[in-house]
């Protein structure tokens, strides 16, 4: 398993008591698998993604990334693990206005200490993979919303992560552009063998998922397998 959450419980202070955001959540996502997480607003989807990204430490339970148990790891080691093994696609691309598409990706490699020439080659390869090879020199204001989101996805893959966490990537896009982005994430998951968790509010995208998990009041439920679509396929 590339991503394994076991018995995750997460609570937040709420006046004199505590509010349970995640309640004994367990989720396994093997490499090459796209797991979609759906649920109403406030159900715990964002908390689950933050825990999986090691950005929040749960009250109890374990998060294992590519065989590494993250429990108790110092901040520096967690930061290194995120740089090398976890790619995060945020809901908003948050691209730097002054940088071109290829430079947005190169920044990630520089943070990791890679050589500029190697970083540029990798960045151009990924822009080609997301269909933006001819947009490498354009800045964010020169790109459409869908193109900016594709740069966002390519940037998350820059350091060749084994785990890809995607937060509502289509929320600011129309249905057609959103479907294109979901198709891209699905293809890259299988081609690059990432363990991908996709948080989405749009159930029309669920047909692309290999597994579907529903979150309600902090509890997660995997749906029953649908055998005729192949092993590991889940539907609502």
Automatic annotation (TrEMBL):
MF (Gene Ontology): ATP binding; ATP hydrolysis activity; transmembrane transporter activity
Query: ABC transporter domain location, by residue?
Result: 3-236
Q: Name one GO cellular component term.
A: plasma membrane
A Pfam family reported for this protein in Swiss-Prot or TrEMBL: ABC_tran
Question: Which keywords annotate this record?
Answer: ATP-binding, Nucleotide-binding, Transport
Against InterPro entries, the record matches this protein to:
AAA+_ATPase, ABC_transporter-like_ATP-bd, ABC_transporter-like_CS, ABC_transpr_LolD-like, MacB-like_ATP-bd, P-loop_NTPase
Instruction: Establish whether keyword Thylakoid is in the entry.
Output: no
Matching Gene3D superfamilies: P-loop containing nucleotide triphosphate hydrolases
Give the superkingdom in one word: Bacteria
Q: What is this protein called?
A: ABC transporter ATP-binding protein
- Which species is this UniProt entry from? Streptomyces mangrovisoli
Ranked from the top, the taxonomy reads: Bacteria, Bacillati, Actinomycetota, Actinomycetes, Kitasatosporales
């Amino acid at each position: 398993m590339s991503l394994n959450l076991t018995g995750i419980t997460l609570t937040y202070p709420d006046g004199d008591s505590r509010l349970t955001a995640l309640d004994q959540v367990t989720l396994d996502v093997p490499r090459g698998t796209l797991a979609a997480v759906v649920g109403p607003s406030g159900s715990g989807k964002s908390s689950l993604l933050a825990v999986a990204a090691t950005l929040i430490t749960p009250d109890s339970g374990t998060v294992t990334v590519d065989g590494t148990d993250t429990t108790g790891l110092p901040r520096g080691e967690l930061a290194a693990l995120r740089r090398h093994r976890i790619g995060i696609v945020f809901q908003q691309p948050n691209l730097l206005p002054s940088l071109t598409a290829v430079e947005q990706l190169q920044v990630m490699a520089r943070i990791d200490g890679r050589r500029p020439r190697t970083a540029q080659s990798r960045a151009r390869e990924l822009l080609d993979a997301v269909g933006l090879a001819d947009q490498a020199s354009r800045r964010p204001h020169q790109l459409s919303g869908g193109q900016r989101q594709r740069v966002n996805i390519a940037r998350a893959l820059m350091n060749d992560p084994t785990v890809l966490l995607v937060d509502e990537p289509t929320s600011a896009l129309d249905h057609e552009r959103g479907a294109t982005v979901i198709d891209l994430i699905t293809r890259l998951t299988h081609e690059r063998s990432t363990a991908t968790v996709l948080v989405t509010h749009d159930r029309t995208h669920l047909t692309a998922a290999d597994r579907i998990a529903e979150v309600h009041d902090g509890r997660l439920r995997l749906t029953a397998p649908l055998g005729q679509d192949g092993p590991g396929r889940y539907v609502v």
